[in-house]
Amino acid sequence: MVPQLLRRGPEPLRRPRATLPAVTATSEAPASFRSSSVRPGAFSLVQGGIREVLSRRRLIAYLVRADLHKKGSDTLLGNLWWFLDPLLQMLVYVIFVGIILQRRTPDYPLFVLCAILPWKWFDSTVKDGVGSVVTRERLIKQIYFPKMVLPISTTVGGVVSFAFGLVPLFAITAIFYPHNLSLWPVLIPIVMFVQLVFSMSIAILISAINVFYRDVGNLARHVLRMWFYLSPALYPPDLVKSLTKDNPILGDIFAVNPWTVMFTAYRDLLFYGQAPHWSGLAILLLVSIGMMLFAIYVFKRAEPTFAKVL
Description:
Blueprint: H1 2-8, H2 31-34, H3 42-55, H4 57-73, H5 81-100, H6 108-130, H7 137-142, H8 149-176, H9 188-212, H10 216-229, H11 237-243, H12 248-255, H13 258-272, H14 278-302, H15 306-309
Helix pairs in contact: 3-14, 4-8, 5-6, 5-8, 6-8, 6-9, 6-10, 6-13, 8-9, 9-13, 9-14
């Protein structure tokens, strides 16, 4: 046996297998975060966050498709709930407001459906955004990737749900309310873009805060419910103006509600067949962009500690 070993020659030295280091709050942080003496400024954080998201467009698209597939496969009717859910909500509000409270609003089912669809998108974006980071705890601790793609993917996925919800709305309009048909709905993508920026800024911000304060999810549900009823979703804005004549401060608060602007814009295009108030949408877009930059800054400042806290 010895001669055989000699003929084979010495065995080559085997290199030890490389082991991946565990991801920690320090190891996953950018180089600028690993030094206590060098911290990036607000502009650098926002710029870096935008650059990371743009470079991960394929990852965002994959997460959106996976989330839509999961939501569709977890229920018996699957993606049909994108059509049925807003119709059932519309039926509930029509019975409650139109029959029980006897509020006489012309074409009320279509009137309320124009508000239910965009609100459903916003409501799901906020609720999914709250847990978009904490529910990926194992993934965050295993590999490094820009965590901001998680709340962004939930927001973009809501666009698809909203687009599917427009199908029954146009069908109901064509069958029961043909006098409301017009060409103005072709401008809906403009209002959708404003809502996308506004919703995404909130989703990014609360997803980062929820990592440290898990009560955000419980609080968000109550805030959303109150926000919906204090917005002109089930009633026209003119009703609020008549009720706030003696209290102008309350009227001003109602006027600056972002959903007063968006509900009115959607109804102008889908219900009244007229141009929306472009100035209000422009102001809301500028405010939403400012909120977006602030949300990115907060998220990127907190991101290096996500793995440690989770």
